[in-house]
């Protein structure tokens, strides 16, 4: 089917979806019982000063009025300003997003690059030693708490072995970040031909990326194995055997038929991984979007939390859109 | 010499139960039959009698826990059961073709019909893609599929059940097989389409002189389309012979009951006599497997029944049958 029609239909769905998400986060943030006013006004503020701050943040208005004003601004691309930093939320988010995307991109690439072949091999030779090992590994990846994995990584590879740099940001404290092109220090360093910066950025990436990859590979192994096993047990694979097709053709058929469900699963996995990444960012002081969101939630920085959640929603919509385009292009039944 | 000659085929399902005791289900207990070129054999029996298992055993498509315990299956003089896996794989789809009962789910959902036809031709016979394409269009056309060149572009999910079954038959015929095994080829199709598919199969055998084996639980199909029939019960053939002979003078009590239990006969006032549970393959009685349900069973039925020849190739395996 016409990809155009699929995109149009999706777009129509996205508008109400985003409205509900905006409404939901707006209300939840305000009903959470947090009151940033006292924090902003400072410990020596008088009651009058506190009221003044409250009025300046428009928090004395009825909640529906507040939402109306907020919605009007969001439609114009204004996510409001962070109360903590006094900077526009959108600018802060755009500044930090590349750090998170970089972490997730490498993590998912490595996680899928390990998870898919391992899962496939396990499915093609079920119950052999390799399958047992992969099941053990994936169970391990499922059970390990994210932050604990990060801390243990730092403890082992930084503290004990001294192989990795300390988990303090995306680049050595003694280096200047490279001129911004993509926002990824590694890629920007390479573009600027600054090898010192690039290698420092790469070595800072290794541990957190490894954490994301391990957390991400576990379910991919399990799902890939299950999907491939189901395909291998299907009528059409059994019939392909009955037709005497060569083994490699049967294998190729099984792979092609497994691809769509695996890609779909990785899509959902990526959207779920955002939460995991926040914790890893926190442990490694990564300074990305996840850490930003977590800090904003803890501090009760309403506009920042709302902007963060909106960005995540948009990100998920985008990921699913990419998955849908892939499925539409590869699946004759999707029409 | 027969094209296919199966001798004393035994297939068991070996598994472990919850107490880790080894359980053996004797699914095939000495199946023997032969099939000549140009003939259609109907294999009938109730569910679990071992009809499909006979076909999958011969074709080497068994998966654990099923295992062949003994016997031979001579195809053009070669024992299929003793053949190396790769040789057998080369034979499957080329000399022995299978048509299964779930045509829509048996086609690769991600390949167009034409590509699947071309793929099987080239996998077994080589040749160029355009040669295979011509062959595919010709085969589809010969099966009465209108506008075959356009149909080559169709995806499996776009086909009706009857059309998918024709495509499956086309796949089976792409390499001009010597033997066509059709496992419940018309189950799930409506009656007019059933008749069309079966007419097609019969014409094919008459025209090309290949041999066909139709596995079915429908005695009507056997009566109308087969030359010979074999009745299976509990993993063994209890009666076999020319269709006309067996229907006119059914000898084995099971066959008698089976024929008497068809809707037409029941309407004519026959008593319903096929009663009782199907046999437990894990604990078959010694001697005749049908003794527990047989109205004529006696003390001698605990002995292994003999194959009694009744003339013209009609054989029944029963103590009660006199030659």
UniProtKB/TrEMBL annotation, chain A:
The record's SUPFAM superfamilies line, in alphabetical order, gives:
MetI-like
Listed under GO cellular component are: plasma membrane
> Where in the cell is the protein located?
Cell membrane
Its membrane topology: Multi-pass membrane protein
Q: Which GO terms describe its molecular function?
A: dipeptide transmembrane transporter activity
User: Which InterPro entries does the UniProt entry name for this protein?
Assistant: BPD_transp_1_N, MetI-like, MetI-like_sf
Question: Could you tell me the keywords of this UniProt record?
Answer: Cell membrane, Membrane, Transmembrane, Transmembrane helix, Transport
Q: Where is the ABC transmembrane type-1 domain?
A: 97-327
Q: Which Pfam families match?
A: BPD_transp_1, BPD_transp_1_N
Q: Which regions span the lipid bilayer?
A: 103-124, 136-161, 201-221, 262-285, 305-329
Family in the record: Belongs to the binding-protein-dependent transport system permease family.
Name of the featured protein: ABC transporter permease
Q: What organism is recorded for this protein? A: Falsiroseomonas algicola
From TrEMBL, chain B:
- What Pfam families does this protein map onto? ABC_tran, oligo_HPY
Q: Which GO terms describe its molecular function?
A: ATP binding; ATP hydrolysis activity
Q: Where in the cell is it found?
A: Cell inner membrane
For this chain's UniProt record, which GO biological process terms are given? peptide transport; transmembrane transport
Determine if Nucleotide-binding is one of this entry's keywords: yes
Recorded superkingdom: Bacteria
Q: Which GO terms describe its cellular component?
A: plasma membrane
Keyword Metal-binding annotated: no
Keyword annotations for this protein, in alphabetical order, are: ATP-binding, Cell inner membrane, Cell membrane, Membrane, Nucleotide-binding, Translocase, Transport
The way this protein sits in the membrane is described as: Peripheral membrane protein
Give the ABC transporter domain ranges: 4-259
Entry's transmembrane regions: none
The UniProt similarity line reads:
Belongs to the ABC transporter superfamily.
Under the heading PANTHER family, the entry gives: ATPASE AAA-TYPE CORE DOMAIN-CONTAINING PROTEIN, OLIGOPEPTIDE TRANSPORT ATP-BINDING PROTEIN APPD
Protein name in UniProt: ABC transporter ATP-binding protein
- Taxonomic classification: Bacteria, Pseudomonadati, Pseudomonadota, Alphaproteobacteria, Acetobacterales
